[in-house]
Amino acid sequence: PQEFIEATSEPGITFLLAKFDGILGLGFKEISVGNSTPVWYNMVEKGLVKEPIFSFWLNRNPQDPEGGEIVFGGVDPKHFKGEHTYVPVTHKGYWQFDMGDLQIAGKPTGYCAKGCSAIADSGTSLLTGPSTVITMINH
């Protein structure tokens, strides 16, 4: 069985203005609400996926009716060129990893030249970080 948790109240206006119906948590069990088993754990444990990999493709064309794709159990070769680079998770909770310098339009920025920690979070549309760096990225 798979537990699902219903939120009946959320602070702020994010969920009122957002164009989505809910969140499918793909983080680690360490941050699950009520110590429930995340759906991804059950999918892997029950052998429902070919590989223990999930991947996202986000369409950059806002006029396209296909907004993106999630693949459970692998990757869709139509949506990338070259090889993937896998990095170790540095803190179980969110998908946290160490990264090197940030590039914008293929050019180094120096914002993270000495290394940074980053989190890839499928449940947010936000880019967060130190205010000075985020301001420079926005410019």
From TrEMBL:
Gene3D superfamilies: Acid Proteases. InterPro entries: Aspartic_peptidase_A1, Aspartic_peptidase_AS, PEPTIDASE_A1, Peptidase_aspartic_dom_sf. SUPFAM superfamilies: Acid proteases. This is Aspartic proteinase A3-like. Belongs to the peptidase A1 family. The gene is LOC104774633. Keywords: Aspartyl protease, Hydrolase, Protease. Residues 1-139 form the Peptidase A1 domain. It comes from the Eukaryota.
